[in-house]
Amino acid sequence: MKIVNIETESRGIHEESVFASLGADYKCVKCDGDFDTISQEAGEADIILFTATPIDKELIDRLPKAQLFVRYGVGYDRVDLEYTKARDVIVCNAPSYGSYDIAEHAFALLMAVNRKIASYDQNIRAGLFGKGAAYNSYRLYNKILGLVGFGRIARNMVDFASGFHMDVLVYDPFIEEKEIASYGARKVDFNQLLKEADYISVHSPLTSKTAKMFSTAEFSQMKDTAVIINTARGGLIDTEALIEALKNKVIRGAGIDVYDDYPKSTNHPLLTLENLVMTPHVAWNSVEAGIALQEEVTAEVARFIKGEPLLNRVNG
Are residues 193 and 260 in the same domain? Predict the structure, then answer.
């Protein structure tokens, strides 16, 4: 069984040990998304490990022996799931490794925006002691947190919110009201969440139905004191609409870790907003999450090689 990681030259001690014990031929090549290089280096591979490379029809056709693609990460919106099914190719992800870390980061962004942490820090460094962004801070006590999506990450958010005595509303059309209530939260429809939440944290997958689910109309329904946090997928929020909502004080603030098109120059309009806190898609990142990611991917590959049931198939 041949395994190729097409994203990095770093072999990973855990992967190397496990794959060797299974008798697999394992190599890592940093292909930088170049299909010609991938074809050359992984054309004979049975299993492809990847992170950011789009797995589309062209690449799948270039890898005729590939039986399994496993992503180091949760999202799979850059994978052509329909074509993989048509080709009888299995696609798996790693959904659990960073659930706690992403929730922790989302709540950290919420607090950083609310308490103006970033602007205070920047202004102290600029010699402006005591000056912060020109908006108000509020206690979290008795405020309402709205969660869009109620998977592993959002459920951790409920635990964090409870420590601040916040009430939690949930919009997720796929989760039963009883299950949401068992976590101490309340299921509502999307419009009610928009109108009632003081803070909204987005934890939905990106699909054709959820793309730009937050745009001008949605921001206009939110409280003018509301804060929105996005650690899920950049495409869930209409960036232009967010910029306008923050610039015109339609909402109080935002914290984002993901982007549909991240700022590539210092004159990007996102960088002019003092009521926005940004991080560079690192919500998952901790020492523990890195280890867990290696273990989760490796365990799924091992199950495939052993002929055991897969736990994280996304196209089945």
Answer: yes
Do 152 and 177 belong to one domain? yes
Q: How far apart are CA 278 and CA 273, in angstroms?
A: 10
**Spatial contact of 37 and 61, defined as CB atoms under 8 Å apart:** no
pLDDT tens track for 80-122? 999 999 999 999 999 999 999 999 999 999 999 999 999 999 9
The one-character DSSP state at 230 is E
DSSP assigned state of 236: G
pLDDT of 13 over the 90 cut: no
Q: Give the helix ranges, DSSP H, for the chain.
A: 13-21, 35-42, 57-62, 81-86, 99-114, 117-125, 152-163, 177-181, 190-196, 216-221, 239-247, 287-306
Question: Is residue 174 located within the same domain as residue 297?
Answer: no
Tokens of 108: 């950290």
CATH number at residue 195: 3.40.50.720
Using CA atoms, how far apart are residues 79 and 179, in angstroms rounded to an integer?
A: 30
Which strand (E) or helix (H) includes residue 253? strand 253-256
Would you state the pLDDT for residue 4? 98
Residue 176's Cβ-side half-sphere holds a number of Cα atoms within 13 Å equal to: 3
- Reported pTM: 0.91
The whole domain housing 248 covers 99-278
- For the chain, the average pLDDT equals 96
Q: How many CB atoms lie within 10 A of CB 11?
A: 13
Please indicate, yes or no, whether residues 125 and 265 belong to a single structural domain of this protein. Answer: yes
* Total tally of structural domains belonging to the chain: 2
Which residue from 35, 41, 33, 37 is spatially nearest to 61, judged by alpha carbons? 35
Question: Alpha-carbon distance 111 to 127, whole Å?
Answer: 24
10 vs 301: CA distance, rounded Å: 18
Judge if 245 and 120 occupy the same domain. yes
What's the pLDDT at 175?
98
Same domain, 217 and 241: yes
Q: Nearest Cα to 161, choosing from 225, 204, 231, 107?
A: 107
